[in-house]
Structures are given as structure tokens and as C-alpha cells.
Amino acid sequence: MGSKGLPAAIRKLLPPLVRILLRNGMSAKSFYEITKDTYVTVARNEFGIGKKQATISRIAILTGLTRKEVQALLDMPVQSADRYGDEYNRAARVISGWLRDPDFGDGRGHPLPLRMGGRRQSFSALVKRYSGDIPVRAMLDELVRVGAVKQLKDGRIGVAVRGYIPQKGADQKLAVLGQDTADLIATIDHNIYGNPSGPRVQRKVVYDNVPAESAQAFQVVAQARTQEMLESLDRWLSHRDRDVNPTVKGKGRLRVGLGVYHFEERLDQDG
Asked: pTM of the entire structure?
């Protein structure tokens, strides 16, 4: 039996997600089908005995599905990779590198306008350094389309925002939902059930009787201070990432980061 507090936590968790699902036309049945498939995948890969994957019978017991349902889900073709999630991560690296890399700015968060081509101090060189094998033109089109960069009158390319947050593309915005929410829930799971590596950072500050004027002021202050903190942490991590710094030594390959988000909830009925 699960924790008695879990149903209450799920009821708190689901409304914002269901709101997005309804806005995008996803039915409860479609959501259930995705949920069943995810239950089976996680049970098979993470809840086996020893180092073996879970058997069909064990998956059925864990998930409450029939053996026939489990087999049918396992026989379905593997879904293709999350293209939009991959674009989100790669585009974020490009903007981040532009802000901190002295080859493309002053190294203190002031990015230089870049010409398209060239071996050094160009948008092409930036993309090749930070996005792997994504074509340069495809990356430019994506960043322009979502409002992250702009093309200047003299033909150079400039940064429009200080972080890659999709402004226009619905699919790109939904990729943020999948990636960032999954990271937060994984951290909560880690901290609830413990891990030899110790708890991960999971902190927030919140007050519940703040006037609208102060809430607006807080948004400005929070954006400025978190941007400064995240750029500092970005510089620290970039020196320890093998893609950026091939001389880094050590074992294993880990995805490491820190997420910060601002939230508001109206508690009165005014306005």
C-alpha cells in the first residue's frame, strides 16, 4: 500500500497539468493510454529483481494491469526521441555559451553581436561549439522563430533574451513542461526516498499575504538575482563539462543542473 498522503499530493499536482492538457485538446483517455505505457516502461526498467528487467507477471502485479495489457504495451513500437526536448537543451546551451564564453562576449554576461560565418567569433563557431551536430542554419531559424535572438540591420545576429525560454513555439514550450517538471519531480523523489549521495537542493521562499504591487516588484527582483546566480553557476559547470572542456578528467557521465522558478497564486476574489 502506498502512503496515505500520496492521493492528496497527486490531486494537488494534477490540476496545472490537466489545465495544459485540456488547452491542447488531449482527452482523459489519451492521457490514460500514455500513463499506462509509462507505468509499464518504468516497472520493467526500474522495478525488476536484482539487475534483471521485471517480467510480464511482475509488471502486471505492480501496475494493476492485466498480463495481456502489459504484453500489448511492450509490443508497441518504441516512441521516437523527443525532438523538441533535444532542441530545447541544445538551444539553451548555445544562448548560455554566448553569455559567458569570452570568445563570443566579454565573459561577464555581455554577448557580442555575431556575424553568421567565420572560423572565430561567429554564430557558426558558437553553434558548432555548443550544440553538437545541429546544422547552423537550423539553429538560427529556431532561435529567431522563438524570439531568443534577432538579426540586426547590419546583418549580424544579437541575443534578444538572457536565457532560452521559448516565446512563440507551442511545441518548444511544451518541451519545457516535460523536461523541467520531470527534473523537479525526480529531485523530490530522490529526497523523499533517500540516496547514498545525500539530498539534493530543493528550496523555496513563499509568503501568502502579499499585495499585487509587491508581487510585481518581486518578479523584477527575482529575475535579476536569479539570472546573476544562474550565470555564475553556469560558468562553474561549463568548466567541468567534457563537451565544453575536453580536458576534464573523471568517471561516469552525469546530467547536472539547478532550476529556479517563480510562482504566484491569487488567494482572494478581487481583480
From this structure: 0.67
